[in-house]
Structures are given as structure tokens and as C-alpha cells.
Specification:
The chain has helices at residues 63-73, 81-96, 105-119, 121-131, 137-155, and strands at 11-19, 24-31, 37-43, 50-52, 58-60, 102-104. With 156 residues, it is α+β, with helices and mostly antiparallel strands. The protein folds into 2 domains: 11-43; 50-155. This is Transcriptional repressor NrdR.
Length: 156
């Protein structure tokens, strides 16, 4: 780390503390040449994710766009904003933990539906109807039937 005052490359760390609720580390440094002190922050570099859409176009992962879709699905449902934020956090973490820097929109949609099914079934069906592009009422009924059959299985 170069000293911001004299430019010397020899500095020593005097103090290290967590910052931003553990998301980064704050380091107090001292230049061995001019004895000036300064602070640096160290944080994990997150590699940007690219979403490959159904038509094979690519765009940067947009957390707000994902949250917007979830908010629309959960509108007028007993799902809190905190729960929706946690869902997006979980999905984003899951995607960051994959070794791929490109993820398909299908994978993201399936992750959303997996968690929405646990969170609120109506929100799940709303999201699925848009995501899976239900063509007619029969497709909608088929999805509801699958959901009902899944609910019955654990009880038996």
C-alpha cells in the first residue's frame, strides 16, 4: 500500500477492525518513511453477474429488477418487505456462490419460485403465471393442481 502523503510503498498496519457490519475491514496504517497515518478499507470484490435471457441476450444482474418482480407477485399478500429483501439476498448469494459468471434467467426464475412457494402460495402462482407465460386457463389449473398435490403428499 503506497503512502498517500509521500508515495513510499513501505507501510505497516497499526490497527485492524471490522467495518460495515463485517462486510469490510478498516485498517489504520503508518508510513515507515514519513510516519504519516492513514486509513484503508478492504472488502471482498464481487465479480459482476451476467444474466443470459431466453432470447440469448445478456444483461447485468439487476437486484432491483428482481425485487420489483417479487414485489408485484406479493402485492396485497401478507409478505413483508423484509421477507422479500431476504429472498433477493438469498438468491443473489446463491448466484454469487456458483462458479459461473453467467447465469440463465431460467435459473433465477426457478430459485424465486422455489422460495415463493414456501413463503406465499398465491404470490408463487402469480409469479409462475408470468414467468412460465401461462397461455390459457388450463395451464393455470395444471399448476394449481400440482401445488395442491404437493400439499396433500406430506399429510398422507
Amino acid at each position: 500500500m503506497n503512502c498517500p502523503y509521500c508515495g513510499d510503498s513501505e507501510t505497516k498496519v497499526i490497527d485492524t477492525r471490522p467495518a460495515d457490519e463485517g462486510a469490510s475491514i478498516r485498517r489504520r496504517r503508518e508510513c515507515t518513511q514519513c510516519k504519516s497515518r492513514f486509513t484503508t478499507y478492504e472488502k471482498i470484490e464481487e465479480v459482476p453477474l451476467v444474466v443470459v435471457k431466453k432470447n440469448m441476450t445478456r444483461e447485468s444482474f439487476n437486484r432491483n429488477k428482481l425485487l420489483g418482480g417479487i414485489i408485484r407477485a406479493c402485492e396485497k399478500r401478507p409478505v413483508t418487505m423484509e421477507q422479500m429483501e431476504q429472498l433477493v439476498d438469498w438468491i443473489e448469494k446463491k448466484l454469487q456462490n456458483t462458479l459461473d459468471r453467467e447465469v440463465s434467467s431460467e435459473m433465477i426464475g426457478e430459485l424465486v419460485m422455489l422460495k415463493l412457494k414456501e413463503l406465499d402460495e398465491v404470490a408463487y402462482v402469480r409469479f409462475a403465471s408470468v414467468y412460465r407465460q401461462f397461455k390459457d386457463i388450463n395451464t393455470f389449473i395444471d399448476e394449481l393442481t400440482k401445488l395442491l398435490n404437493e400439499k396433500k403428499r406430506p399429510e398422507q
